[in-house]
């Protein structure tokens, strides 16, 4: 109706105007229409820009990674039995930050067993492309009369610090006696470095805010070991495990019973950059299809897309694979654990040339998340996993990949076909000097030796292409190092 009135008005004006002024009138009308369209367009453009920005925030564009030739470095010995006066080096942890590797471990003074005095130490390795220059041993913490164990490191990128959580246990207190007594006799400690591992703050005792806050205090708690994570929300999470006397433990029989304790993999978390810590969720007690109790033990954690957390843990029965559980609430709770049948782990040991079941089967392992290399991936985070890939004894240190959020796993790429035990993986990126695209790489720190898995702690770097190529074949060549003699591998 409005348009009809406007049309009649313009027609009447054109009839009554002299020919000399009709052209001027038409020109003014056209200009008015153009101005109106411009004014109407601006809100539309502003609204479009807002929506476009929101879309980019909700769905970030994945970085483009270059495809390169498979590349790996030779194995390098970082710690070796007897070095710097220590008896044995065990329990590695590894992080990479600002082109620096930090290789942590326990420095055991008296024996390779889990008892006696121990220090926590680190070596810093400055990376330049595919070369690493390692510094001397740095003493992080020592405590007379105690053994300091289970270093679990996190890179806090919000404050550019390295946060290290560990445990302190009276040096000659046996872990099985602690489990049997079922009371807190240890400390949980945290220290931080603000210069990328060169110096460390005096360790703080966080036991009161963690173990002593639990409804049933555990007989023993162990962090990690390996590395923790900082989630997209900024929360620091340390995986670990604890033994506690509860209704499930009392019902277990035979080799499943650990002094009426149940073993739970769990997490600690901090929302203030590692100053204070609280106890998060644990994998609920469960049984496998045959009725065997699933004790979830030493654990590692990874964050997938949309904040999903996967807690992956060792199990203690000699014939069970690893177990996994999921959290969708930033680690407050976890789903019931499910066995990951592809992730076999060793449950036996050799005593006097006889292979027998271990009292506590399984072995620690490591996993780390990294961006999927292709834009079209429905799961934008892949996960790398390392452990001694054997269902018998601790041997065959290997790498696997999951492309579907830890639901399934690739075949193993064996990087060390001899005796091997604990390990830790870290992910880092480099830039292709020709294309300018990112390259995806890993480093691993692990225990091994030709006949003795605690002989040394070794380091190796490799790219994603080496992993993807390696899982297609059996890798059996003897690793080489900078050392002159091959005898270093036993």
Helix/strand layout:
Elements: H1 2-16, H2 19-58, E1 76-80, E2 88-97, E3 100-108, E4 118-128, E5 131-134, E6 138-141, E7 146-156, E8 161-170, H3 175-181, E9 187-193, E10 204-205, E11 220-223, E12 226-227, E13 229-230, E14 236-245, H4 247-251, E15 261-270, E16 278-282, E17 286-287, E18 293-294, E19 296-303, E20 309-315, E21 322-327, E22 338-340, E23 348-351, E24 354-357, E25 366-371, E26 381-388, E27 395-402, E28 413-431, E29 438-449, E30 456-463, H5 464-470
Parallel strand pairs: 7-12
Antiparallel strand pairs: 1-30, 2-3, 3-4, 4-5, 4-6, 7-8, 8-9, 9-10, 11-14, 13-14, 14-15, 15-16, 17-18, 19-20, 20-21, 21-22, 23-24, 25-26, 26-27, 27-28, 28-29, 29-30
Q: CATH architecture of the largest domain, please?
A: 6 Propeller
Distance between the termini: 96 Å
Strand order of the largest sheet: 1-30-29-28-27-26-25
Number of helices: 5
Low-pLDDT segments: 1-5, 37-59, 475-490
User: Can you tell me the number of structural domains?
Assistant: 2
- Indicate the overall shape: globular
CATH fold-level topology of the largest domain? Neuraminidase
Number of strands: 30
Helix content: 10-25%
Which structural class do you get from the secondary structure elements? alpha+beta
Q: Just give the CATH class of the largest domain.
A: Mainly Beta
Average pLDDT confidence is: 88
Main beta-sheet annotation: 7 strands, antiparallel
Query: Could you tell me the strand content as a percent range?
Result: 35-45%
How large is the radius of gyration? Answer: 30 Å
């Amino acid at each position: 109706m409005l348009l009809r009135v406007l049309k009649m008005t313009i027609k009447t004006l054109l009839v009554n105007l002299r020919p000399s002024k009709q052209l001027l009138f038409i020109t003014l009308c056209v200009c008015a229409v153009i101005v109106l369209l411009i004014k109407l367009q601006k809100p539309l453009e502003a609204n479009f820009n807002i929506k476009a920005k929101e879309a980019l925030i909700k769905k970030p564009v994945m970085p483009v990674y270059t495809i390169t030739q498979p590349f790996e470095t030779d194995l390098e010995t970082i710690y070796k039995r007897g070095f710097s006066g220590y008896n044995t080096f065990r329990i590695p942890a590894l992080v990479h930050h600002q082109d620096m590797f930090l290789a942590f471990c326990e420095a055991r003074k008296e024996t390779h067993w889990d008892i006696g005095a121990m220090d926590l130490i680190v070596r810093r390795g400055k990376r330049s492309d595919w070369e690493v220059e390692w510094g001397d041993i740095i003493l992080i913490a020592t405590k007379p009369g105690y053994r300091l164990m289970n270093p679990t490191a996190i890179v806090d990128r919000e404050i550019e610090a390295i946060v290290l959580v560990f445990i302190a246990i009276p040096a000659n207190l046996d872990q099985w006696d602690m489990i049997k007594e079922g009371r807190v006799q240890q400390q949980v400690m945290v220290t931080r470095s603000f210069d990328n591992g060169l110096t460390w703050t005096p360790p703080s005792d966080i036991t009161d805010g963690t173990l002593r806050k639990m409804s049933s205090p555990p007989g023993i708690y162990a962090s990690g070991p390996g590395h923790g994570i900082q989630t997209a929300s900024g929360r620091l999470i340390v995986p670990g495990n604890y033994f506690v006397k509860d209704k499930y433990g009392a019902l277990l029989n035979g080799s499943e019973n650990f002094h009426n304790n149940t073993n739970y993999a769990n997490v600690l978390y901090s929302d203030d950059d590692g100053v204070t810590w609280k106890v998060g969720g644990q994998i609920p007690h469960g049984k496998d299809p045959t009725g065997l109790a699933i004790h979830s033990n030493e654990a590692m954690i990874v964050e997938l897309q949309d904040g999903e957390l996967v807690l992956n843990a060792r199990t203690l029965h000699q014939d069970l694979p690893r177990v996994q559980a999921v959290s969708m609430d930033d680690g407050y709770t976890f789903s019931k654990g499910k066995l990951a049948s592809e992730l076999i782990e060793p449950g036996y040991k050799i005593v006097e040339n006889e292979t027998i079941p271990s009292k506590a089967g399984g072995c620690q392992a490591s996993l780390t998340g990294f961006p999927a290399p292709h834009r079209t991936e429905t799961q934008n985070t892949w996960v790398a996993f390392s452990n001694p890939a054997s269902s018998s004894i601790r041997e065959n240190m290997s790498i696997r990949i999951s492309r579907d959020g830890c639901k399934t796993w690739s075949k193993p790429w064996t990087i060390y076909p001899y005796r091997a035990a604990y390990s830790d993986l870290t992910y880092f990126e480099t830039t292709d000097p020709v294309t300018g695209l990112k390259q995806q790489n890993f480093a691993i720190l692990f225990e091994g030796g030709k006949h003795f898995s605690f002989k040394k702690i070794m380091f190796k770097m490799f790219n994603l292409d080496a992993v993807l190529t390696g899982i297609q074949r059996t890798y059996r060549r003897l690793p080489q190092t900078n050392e002159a003699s091959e005898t270093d591998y036993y």
